[in-house]
From TrEMBL:
Protein's UniProt keywords contain Zinc: no
Segment forming the signal sequence: 1-24
Gene3D superfamilies, alphabetized: 3.10.450.50
DUF4440 domain mapped to chain residues: 26-134
Keyword list, A-Z: Signal
Record flagged with keyword Signal: yes
SUPFAM superfamilies to which the protein is assigned, alphabetical: NTF2-like (SSF54427)
InterPro entries in alphabetical order: DUF4440 (IPR027843), NTF2-like_dom_sf (IPR032710)
Pfam families referenced in this protein's UniProt entry, alphabetically: DUF4440
Protein name: DUF4440 domain-containing protein
Transmembrane segments: none
Length: 140
């Protein structure tokens, strides 16, 4: 009995650490996005998305399918750093749905000299080939 109790007590911190690792990696992914956006680098911003025709981005104009089409939409909507402004995320929820799959709810804010924008987003982030990638994004 002592052995079982000792084993449980030793393994609990490891289980908590493993649960935090994906959350830390996802937070780093979102920080990478923010830094790339704020540097005016849309290609680097898009490196956090799944480079696949199966990527889905849903915005105010409806769904866009595919990585390249999503990048093209960003380039049309934000043609320069004035339009892009400075991005800030506020994560409201980060929930595991399955091993290697997370659901994120957050708020975004663009501080811009031409007028601020803000809204909310939901993301599905999946571990693919050892990297975390956004596979679905609904931003409004």
């Amino acid at each position: 009995m002592r052995f079982v109790l000792s084993f449980i007590l030793l393994m609990a911190p490891l289980a908590m650490l493993r649960a935090q690792q994906p959350q830390s990696a996802i937070s780093a992914l979102l920080a990478k996005q923010t830094a790339a956006w704020n540097a005016g680098n849309l290609e680097e911003f898009m490196s956090t998305y799944w480079q696949s025709d199966s990527l889905i981005f849903i915005g105010k104009r409806g769904p866009t399918y595919g990585w390249q089409a999503t990048l093209d939409n960003y380039k049309r909507s934000y043609p320069d750093t004035t339009a892009m402004g400075k991005l800030n995320f506020n994560i409201l929820e980060m929930k595991p749905l399955a091993t290697g799959l997370y659901f994120i709810v957050g708020k975004w804010h663009l501080q811009r000299s031409i007028g601020d924008l803000e809204g909310h987003f939901t993301l599905l982030i999946k571990q693919i080939g050892g990297s975390w990638k956004i596979i679905a994004d609904h931003s409004s």
